[in-house]
């Protein structure tokens, strides 16, 4: 057993690196996709803002989320009153959402004193 070790076995290193790559890619997919699936409408032009908005999500079924937390219609006013009125409110509505539901939510938000209400869309 006087054999010299003149080669490095890289197979375990490659196995570990492939597992780490799969973990990173899987995690990155969940982070970029968001937690609530919404098919946004598309638009040719859109404005860009740099501050952090208050995000309201309306799903195709009409469920309402504020900053990724489920909120009922009765809780909406109390939830929004904890935020400053100068905040930008960004509404992420699924393109299959009924217009009446969207208009009702935006009307309630504006009625609470929020003047900067925007709709999030995808560029074409």
Provide key terms for this protein.
124 residues; elongated; two-stranded parallel sheet; 7 strands; alpha/beta; five-stranded mixed β-sheet; Nucleotidyltransferase, domain 5
Short description:
Helices cover 35% and strands 19% of the residues.
Question: Would you give an account of this structure?
Answer:
The chain has 3 helices and 7 strands; from the N terminus they run αββββαβαββ. The strands form 2 sheets. It has a 5-stranded mixed β-sheet. A two-stranded parallel ribbon has the order 1-7. Strand 2 and strand 3 form a beta hairpin. Helix content is 35%, strand content 19%. It has a domain of 82 residues: Nucleotidyltransferase, domain 5, CATH 3.30.420.270.
The CATH architecture of the domain at 42-123 can be named as: 2-Layer Sandwich
Give the overall form.
elongated
The third-level CATH topology of the domain at 42-123 is: Nucleotidyltransferase, domain 5
Structural class label: alpha/beta
What does the main sheet amount to?
5 strands, mixed
Question: Residue ranges: pLDDT <50 for 5 or more in a row?
Answer: none
Radius of gyration (CA) equals: 23 Å
Instruction: Tell me how many strands there are.
Output: 7
Strand content: 15-25%
Strand order of the largest sheet: 4-3-2-5-6
- Terminus-to-terminus distance: 68 Å
What is the element string, with H for helices and E for strands?
HEEEEHEHEE
Helix content: 25-40%
Overall mean pLDDT: 83
CATH class of the domain at 42-123: Alpha Beta
- Enumerate how many helices there are, as a single number: 3
């Amino acid at each position: 057993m006087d054999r010299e070790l003149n080669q490095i076995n890289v197979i375990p290193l490659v196995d570990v690196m492939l597992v780490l790559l799969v973990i990173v890619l899987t995690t990155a997919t969940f982070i970029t996709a968001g937690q609530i699936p919404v098919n946004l409408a598309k638009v040719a032009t859109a404005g860009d803002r740099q501050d952090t908005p208050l995000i309201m999500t309306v799903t195709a079924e009409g469920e309402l989320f504020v900053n990724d937390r489920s909120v009922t219609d009765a809780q909406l006013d109390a939830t929004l009153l904890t935020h400053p009125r100068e905040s930008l409110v960004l509404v992420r509505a699924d393109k299959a959402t009924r217009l009446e539901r969207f208009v009702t939510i935006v009307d309630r938000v504006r009625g609470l004193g929020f003047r900067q209400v925007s709709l999030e869309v995808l560029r074409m």
